[in-house]
Design goal:
The complex is a heterodimer of chains A (about 450) and B (about 240). By secondary structure, chain A is an alpha+beta fold. Chain A has 18 helices and twelve strands. In chain A, α4 runs antiparallel to α5 and α5 packs antiparallel against α6. The chains are: A alpha+beta (about 450), B alpha/beta (about 240).
Chain lengths: ~450, ~240
């Protein structure tokens, strides 16, 4: 039954240590006295379906009660911040979009707002661009919350929810694809504007989606809210009150589920959020149930914002007027993908040498950003996304640091899980909605 | 308040000042050439004029404008060691930066959090920046504080030389725990009093601190289970 080399045991000064690899539990458990050896150290992850990616939790258990949790992160570290220092400011967008892969629009907007603040052109961003940015951020928020519903549903036993959540998210990714050519990692928001204008076909898709989702949301609530298992697994589980949240730096839906209506879109608005009407949903239970209610309510608020944004959308330029910053080419979606528009190619190749030089310099070298540093915070689906950007006056970033909410929020796992049952570690961890790509960057 | 004498003009990247001080882990020597022949800053176009410029701001005069004066005055009133702790005040792009003596940073954070007229309850972010070649105290640790009561933001900045340490603020803001670990991991800055200052993003046995400016991009062998594969630019096929 047992393969040699597996299920080994060795004597140490602290007693006998077993290595269990799965399927061989009985051979070990049969030999030890269950009463005197209650303490078990379980290494959960980094490859585990319930840890949302490559999160590793080292759990110390007394029976089924968790006494210690030690989260270990860093398995998805890709050095994006270091890489940014070797690319120009515009190219940075392609990197940062890959950090938190469930909310790439937020990574891009945070980065672009920081670059624009460094350039001092924040007020020159056109109305249309700001509206599209807001609309896409809210669509992304819906997509991210849907994935949260899907994965958390799966982890707590509601497999159908997983299928539904991902199905609905696909509609949003379809809208992104229609606009930018890519489902994820769009690289759509650029410093000073957008890669491409929003096509009419995407507007139609968004209108359809606004009609479609509210009905589906009701179905999910009917599926989950009244369901006893869902209630038992979430209510009173992984409680973290406002004091705990603030000292651990937890923001976003987790903080709002504890009752504090702190939302940067309201408290420190950016991109013109002060012009939209929406509420900041809160709960007072401070548990997984409260976080579920807050997230579902936030999807509804985001739908309201997207609808208002669609109504505000007026034709107009998407790039700022400053030719030293604005992308020189008009991009167009051709049969072979996104590329320079034919008129632009005809102009730079056939008519204007200066345009060609300008295009070449701006695209290969990039624009210069005056020296200094800024910090920009935006409301990400998981909390405050902070971008600390430093420029030394050259064409590429001196340093860009992302304060990713997944990274900061994961610190709360020990506070939520220690003293609770093993199963509640899963519910509590899931309620933080960590995305390891963002956490490890 | 004082400014640094060598802080004007573009300074080319040369050997780090104080680089021979005993760092927690030694950085690998900076290679002449980065991956794929990249030199200096790695400006991909080659047109960028590779001299490093001066990234830090200069002292700002009073009044600072907005709520910045209120914050400054409130801190001066609440904190007895104010005159000694503040090195420089910079107001730039609508943001207030207070440069704090590194050994005072935890005390200042305590006042910033607890004083009624300051109330910076949330420490949004802690991270480092390496000003190699433009400041003798090359590592600047930034603390982005947020006051939810007054809806204000302030940045505290503490500069330390290579090998110098500063107090951890985890006693005031427990959220700084992982962020200080990241700053240690990436820059090798030691925070004294931190409960568990170990690497967080890089592997435990990694040598060097990757976000330092004299640490190369790429050029590191790929290691897996004892086997080592040289970086792409040193593989035989590219030579």
């Amino acid at each position: 039954m047992t393969t040699p080399g597996y299920a080994t045991e060795r004597e140490t000064t602290e007693g006998r240590v077993f290595t269990v690899t799965g399927g061989d539990w009985d051979t070990i458990a049969g030999n030890i006295d269950p009463l005197s050896n209650e303490k078990i150290v379980v290494n959960m992850g980094p490859q585990h379906p319930s840890t949302h990616g490559v999160l590793r939790l080292v759990l110390e258990l007394e029976g089924e009660t968790v006494t210690t949790v030690r989260p270990v992160v860093g398995y998805l570290h890709t050095g994006i911040e270091k890489n940014l220092e070797y690319r120009n400011w515009t190219q940075g967008v392609t990197f940062v979009t890959r950090m938190d892969y469930l909310s790439n629009m937020f990574n891009e907007v945070g980065y672009c707002l920081a670059v624009e603040k460094l350039l001092g052109v924040t007020d020159q961003i056109t109305e249309r661009t700001n509206t599209i940015r807001v609309m896409f951020m809210e669509l992304q928020r819906i997509a991210s919350h849907l994935v949260w519903l899907a994965t958390t549903g799966m982890e707590l036993g509601a497999i159908s929810m997983m299928l539904y959540g991902f199905r609905e998210r696909e509609y949003i990714l379809d809208i992104f694809e229609e606009t930018s050519g890519l489902r994820m990692n769009n690289g759509y928001i650029r410093p000073g504007g957008l890669a491409q204008d929003l096509p009419e076909s995407a507007v139609r898709k968004i209108r359809d989606f606004l009609k479609y989702l509210p009905k589906k949301l009701k179905e999910y609530e009917a599926l989950l809210s009244g369901q006893v298992i869902w209630q038992e697994r979430t209510q009173g589980v992984a409680v973290l009150d406002v004091t705990g949240c603030l000292s651990l730096g937890i923001t976003g839906p987790v903080l709002r589920s504890a009752g504090l209506a702190w939302d940067l879109r309201k408290t420190m608005p950016y991109c013109g959020y002060e012009n939209y009407e929406f509420d900041v949903p809160t709960a007072t239970t401070a548990d997984v149930w409260g976080r579920y209610l807050v997230r579902v309510a936030e999807i509804r608020e985001s739908l309201k914002i997207v609808e208002q944004a669609l109504d505000r959308l007026r034709p107009g330029p998407i790039w700022i007027d400053d030719k030293k910053v604005a992308w020189p080419a008009q991009l167009a979606l051709g049969v072979d993908g996104l590329g320079n528009s034919l008129e632009h190619v005809a102009k730079i190749m056939g008519q204007s040498m200066e345009s060609l030089i300008h295009h070449f310099k701006l695209v290969t070298e990039g624009f210069r950003v005056p020296p200094g540093q800024v910090y920009v915070g935006i409301e990400h689906p998981r909390g405050e996304l902070g971008v600390h950007a430093v420029s030394d006056g050259s064409t590429h970033p001196y340093r860009v640091h992302y304060r990713d909410p997944s990274f900061v929020n994961l610190q709360a796992i020990p506070a939520m899980a220690e003293g609770a049952l093993l199963a509640d570690v899963i519910a509590g961890g899931a309620s933080l909605d960590p995305v390891m790509g963002g956490c490890d960057r | 308040m004082s400014t640094h004498s060598e802080s004007d003009g573009g300074v080319p990247v040369t050997a780090p000042v104080g680089a021979n001080l005993d760092a927690p882990a030694q950085t690998p020597p900076s290679p002449d050439k980065g991956m794929f022949g990249v030199q200096g800053t790695g400006d991909v176009s080659g047109f960028g004029g590779l001299a490093r410029r001066r990234p830090t701001g200069v002292d700002s005069p009073r009044p600072f404008g907005g709520y910045f004066d209120e914050v400054y005055d409130a801190l001066e009133e609440a904190y007895p060691g104010f005159a000694d702790a503040i090195e420089k005040v910079v107001v730039d792009r609508g943001e207030l930066t207070l440069h704090i003596k590194p050994e005072r940073i935890a005390e200042v954070c305590q006042i910033m959090r607890d004083d009624e007229s300051l109330r910076f309850e949330l420490c949004s972010s802690v991270d480092g920046v390496d000003y190699l070649g433009s400041d003798n105290r090359r590592f600047h640790i930034s603390y982005q504080l947020t006051s939810m009561t007054y809806r204000r933001r302030v940045r505290l900045e503490a500069a330390v030389a290579d090998g110098q340490s500063l107090p951890s603020v985890t006693g005031v803001y427990p959220t700084a725990d992982w962020q200080e670990r990241e700053a240690y991991d990436m820059f090798g800055v030691v925070f004294t009093g931190h409960p568990n200052l170990t690497r967080i993003l890089m592997p435990d046995d990694w040598e060097g601190h990757p976000q330092r400016k004299d640490y190369p991009l790429g050029g590191v062998p790929v290691e897996y289970k004892g086997a080592s594969i040289p970086p792409p630019d040193q593989r035989r096929v590219y030579q």
